[in-house]
Every structure is written in C-alpha cells, then in structure tokens.
Amino acid sequence: AVERTLSIIKPDAVRKNVIGAILSRFEGAGLRIAAAKMLHLSREDAGGFYAVHEARPFYGELCDFMSSGPVLILVLEGEGAIAKNRDLMGATNPKDAAAGTIRADFADSIDANAVHGSDGAETAAWEIAYFFGQREIFRAES
Ligand code: CMP
C-alpha cells in the first residue's frame, strides 16, 4: 500500500552538507517528498517529539543533540514507505548498519546517526502530525 512516513535529516548530516545526497537515496528508491521544512528545533520541540523515550537514559543527550542545529523534516510517500525508509537508513547504531545504507555512509555515532524514520504506521501518523498540517503535505502526482 502507498504509505507516508516521517523522516528527519539530523543536525550532523545538515552540518556535513549531505542533505542532497540523502534526498537522492529516497528518490532513487522510489519515494517521493510529499512535505519538507527546515527548522532549528527548540529543546522542548525535540523533547516532545521523542517523549516516548523520556524514561530512557539517552533522552537528555538526544534532546540536546536534536536541538543543536537545523534539521530537514520530510514526509516521504510511496509503496511501503515506512519499511523502505528503514531499509535505506540502516541500523540505529551506525556500527551495526549494513554497507550502503544512509547511516553506514553518513552517520558518526548512535546519537549523531544522520536520520530518523518512523518505526510503524501509528508512529508515522503521530510524527507527521507533530510537524505538519494537512495543507503542508502534497499528494504525489505520478
Ligand atoms: P532515532 O531513530 O531518531 O530515535 C531515537 C534516537 O535516540 C535514535 O535514533 C538514536 O539516535 C538515539 N539513541 C541514543 N542512544 C540510543 C540507544 N541506546 N538506543 C536507541 N536509540 C538511541
């Protein structure tokens, strides 16, 4: 089925000037960019987005990192978009990420791991609504 998923190009990847290289991976895999915005998240923005991880020991550092510089937030749309995006990203820890994945090629550490992607349909819907209004998301015209 055609799905939508939320992707974030994280501050480390923006700093490295690899936004375009990462977008090309998505487009090359048949995903379309249905929405995009660049934001410098406040610590509160980041904390709310990652509220599900609030009790985890890495929560504080994660929020500090995600608010350390601008990010590019995307809605990706396409057949099986949620799983496809996760395949493209590779494992959360770049040390475990398969060769040729975004995290293997661009990430430095488990925190500075280049990209975020929704992990399921329910999460995707919640994450998309956290950042985008209906009028900011565009249906693919292919
Ligand atoms: P992301 O997909 O954005 O979701 C939560 C983030 O927390 C994750 O990527 C990592 O960057 C970060 N993180 C830091 N430590 C851990 C950990 N031990 N397990 C999972 N995620 C972690």
Automatic annotation (TrEMBL):
<keyword id="KW-0808">Transferase</keyword>
<protein>
    <submittedName>
        <fullName>Nucleoside-diphosphate kinase</fullName>
        <ecNumber>2.7.4.6</ecNumber>
    </submittedName>
</protein>
<keyword id="KW-0418">Kinase</keyword>
